[in-house]
Amino acid sequence: MLPDIKKAWGGKINAVTIGATAAEGGTRGYTVQVGGSATLPFLNFEGETARPVIAMEIWDVYPEDWPDVLKEPFGDALKDPVAWAKKCIEMGADLICLRLMGCNPDRENRPVADAVRVVKALLAGMPAPLIIWGCGNAEKDNELFPAVAEAAAGENCLLGTATEDNYKTLTAVCTAYKHKLIGESPCDVNIAKQVNILVADMGFPMSDIVIYPTSGALGYGLEYIYSVMERARLAGLKGDAMLAQPMVSDIGIEVWGVKEARVTEAEVPEWGSQKERAPLWEAATAGVYCAGGADMVILRHPRAVETVKKTIAGLAG
Amino acid sequence: MGIILIGERINGSFKDVGRAIQEKDASVIKEWVQKQEAGGANYLDVNMGAASRKTEDWVWLVKTTLEYTKLPLSLDCNKVEMFRPALEVCREMAPDKIHLLNSTTAEDHRLGPLVEMAAEFNTSLLGVVMDERGSPQDVDRRVELGAKIFGAAFEGGLEPDRIFLDPIVMPVKFMQEQAKNVLEAIQQFTMLSDPPPHISIGLSNVASKTTERKLINRTFLVMAVAMGLDAAIVDVCDEDLVNAVAAAELVMNYEIYSDGFLKARQ
Questions:
Q1: CA A250/CA B241 separation, integer angstroms
Q2: pTM for this structure?
Q3: Out of A191, A198, A240, closest to residue B255 by CB
């Protein structure tokens, strides 16, 4: 008799539901489940594998510094977050990720009330579940989160991010207004686990956390990140409850900051068409993270969304 | 992939539990269930000790423990015929748990029936490496008997992760040369198959009648983990012991480090 070589894992990755319909006390048109796999990505002969879901990123302000090839598919919709979100849904987004970029003190430094207004408009004007991502400045985020969490009460949003040094405010408001939470760790599995321990220590359910292990574009340390993701995923499947959370990769913001996506054909003719190259760079990056264990990717360009969907469908079979 | 801790405290050899068995006092059992769960137990050992030999008392103890715990049990008993009634209770009250039969020896009249019972009731089986000739005094004999138990259990349909081997720990005070033999046997057990069986010890024996019992227990357990031990029947309410296990799990790369690793083990 030979042992069965199929791997039976002792653990399972949590499934986190984002959004709440009217029946669940919210106003979303539908909900989206992130995670829930019982084995490694796409190994569906071994057990349940959850397909990665796709969020598209929008801002609370006009994205002045986006390259033209990224602005072009959205046109004037970029001037209105609700119109922009609707366009994303048409383009295939499962969820909308609102990044409160305009509130960053180094940018427009818009007041908290403006962020609240945008959140309310989005919840009233489009049906998708909502991710609300801070402005990136810890101090300002701690002013923003209580207000936007309250404005979105009952909608079961995903709010981020909590870090090892700044998790208390976000954890408290996610508890109070019943939202899900993103725990961020800088390419470090030990800190990913530690953030979860800290958040759980405040009484927040482990089953309501999504891990953001940070992300890097293709060519910019991506292999370090996906190694960390693989290690976290293996531990979670082996039964480590502090690493059994689904993972999100924030792709668009990384890819559209590197020269391979930003440089035009006129500047470097041998790199070819930017319109082709840049979305491909975004899609290639996202595909790698999906294979590494990402349960959700946040993207910007509709052609990247289309390509990643094809990749996922091909791998999922 | 941490160390499996089997809580030792529901044992009739302890005065309070012995009295509870005789007086059918469920509150004592409940208390030890809760304390051991809080201490981080993965299984609860249930043993009548010298308190009683009656099957009805044994069934009461198993039933009472299951009433209060969600953990699987280590049914600790040396009479083959006592297992079936306990297993029937487990099947009725906790059918989705993989319990542990504790234990068989390498003696054919025990090994055969207990392997069959483990397969029938879908449990794990712990084999202690002794036979008609008693406990082994050297490494080779331990490994020989371990291989015999493993072979019989595997052929009987138990996967390696359903098989636990116990190399028999002896008191360091009286048989000082045996502790090293046990450590070496543990290492050799890990090579019996790939994946290997679980390897478990009854820890407290090593420190029997010594001073500084907790220190000796803790030291030996950590050394055994370094050799490949992955289970032990222990006092899970000994915080220093459990913390040492948590640290050993990091050193062995079984668990991913985090600054709050002691909290993560709870």
A1: 42
A2: 0.88
A3: A240
